[in-house]
Input
Amino acid sequence: MKFKKVRNIDTPYTGISDEDYQIEKRRLQIELLRIQKRINREDKKLVVVFEGRDAAGKGSTIKRFTENMIPSCHKVIALGIPTSNESKNWFRRYQKHFPKPGQIVFFDRSWYTRAMIEPTMGYCTQQQYKYFMKKVLKWEQNHIDNDTLIIKFYLSIDQETQLLRFEDRLDNPLTYWKFSNNDLHARKKWEVFTQFKDQMLERTSSEKSPWIVINANKKREARLTAMLHVVNLLGRGKFETLTGEDITKTYSIKVGGVKFRGLTYRQLCVLEELKEQEDQFIDLDDNT
Output
């Protein structure tokens, strides 16, 4: 297993205005939808993990990823307290939620709970923690070898930012439920959590599933930065930030013996459906 240094991403969105944020978010969401369409069309599998402390913005970032995606082709997994059996069969708890061909799965906290908050709070034994740290990269590699791409984000916030967000949650009648006594207990163990977090980042960042660390003290900047990373990693066009322009790229396809050129992405999708129908008819003819 080849280890890879954790990658801390600098954001190009420092101090972005409200107007530019909305424009850039839309541009990135268009590209994410194109990526989703291709994953679905080619029967690929993608897992996107979001880790971080309480109030780091994991759920809100996932929401911006998915709000314009095709609902039937993605899932968001946010598991609660594990049962005794799930705690003993940790990897299986998450593996059953992994994507089927053509699907994207977003994990709002993941199997890496065992690497950070569980040992911090004493929710797992030392033996369970050590077993996880020893086996996790091999487990991920097995999924990668089975054509599952894994992207792992860690959203990093400081103590002051977390406290401000906790206060905002408590003051808001629509979000007070997000705060729990457990959040407060975990905050008291900030340094212990930091030690486990640093160990996780150092020991579980492989060449094929590296950790991507994003400064999340500014939610909007973090959201766009995470989306941009996926677009740059999986997109087929060159995305230039803050231009206000959609990527202009033309496509071509051959349907019914006719070559269509200079197509927009939307036109390509329509013709691809026609081509799939054409191929199905050919298969039927071959079987008769």
